[in-house]
């Protein structure tokens, strides 16, 4: 199982994520590329830290929404959105290369991630951007997303590698999608519940649903959110529990 977390989600003097601590736990780092959070100095620092620890660097692309942290749904035309996403991937690639690596995958953030589950045009824009990167740099980047999503289906149709993802600290609907953050109980705050869900996903391939049931979740990567209080300590606890259960932790990219 790969462990990924959102890193670099600060801006200027505002620091949100404990990047140093999280980089010692995760195997893949979803780096904010400046549109929902992040700035050039932060991107450089996270890339350097990731390379030093053997952590894969992923471009966490989003809507242009610094004020809303990328969590507000926006109706951006496909071509315009694809250009903005390509811009973000390219910016991170420069810092990743300077650190001695390169962007290893792409993961949409926030509202774009959720829209790309069912919105064909928004999902297609992500695929277009990754395709543009492939033409420019001669390598195809895996796209990380929710199982059964339009995003992963369109990526596969385009011949791009796909990676399925589950969440340790998010509640699921019976359909296998994430409960919207606007609804009560969408985010799991109890550390015991987060660890239990991580183990259920990794060992049994299932997750708890908001109505008390269970849903099948086939995932190669497990997301541990980095923007919640005590995130680094919780991520470390999750990794320890997974390893104790015999789960091998390794990057997918």
Automatic annotation (TrEMBL):
Keyword field contains Nucleotide-binding: yes
InterPro entries, alphabetized: Glyco_hydro/deAcase_b/a-brl, LamB/YcsF/PxpA-like
Root EC class: hydrolase
Designated name of the protein: 5-oxoprolinase subunit A
Spans traversing the lipid bilayer: none
UniProt keyword list: ATP-binding, Hydrolase, Nucleotide-binding
Any one GO molecular function term: 5-oxoprolinase (ATP-hydrolyzing) activity
SUPFAM superfamilies listed in its UniProt record: Glycoside hydrolase/deacetylase
Job description of the protein: Catalyzes the cleavage of 5-oxoproline to form L-glutamate coupled to the hydrolysis of ATP to ADP and inorganic phosphate.
EC number(s) reported in the record: 3.5.2.9
The reaction(s) this protein catalyses: 5-oxo-L-proline + ATP + 2 H2O = L-glutamate + ADP + phosphate + H(+)
Keyword Amino-acid biosynthesis among UniProt keywords: no
Assembly description: Forms a complex composed of PxpA, PxpB and PxpC.
Any GO BP: carbohydrate metabolic process
One Pfam family this sequence matches: LamB_YcsF
Top-rank taxon, per record: Bacteria
CDD domains according to UniProt: LamB_YcsF_like
Family named by the database record: Belongs to the LamB/PxpA family.
Gene3D superfamilies: Glycoside hydrolase/deacetylase
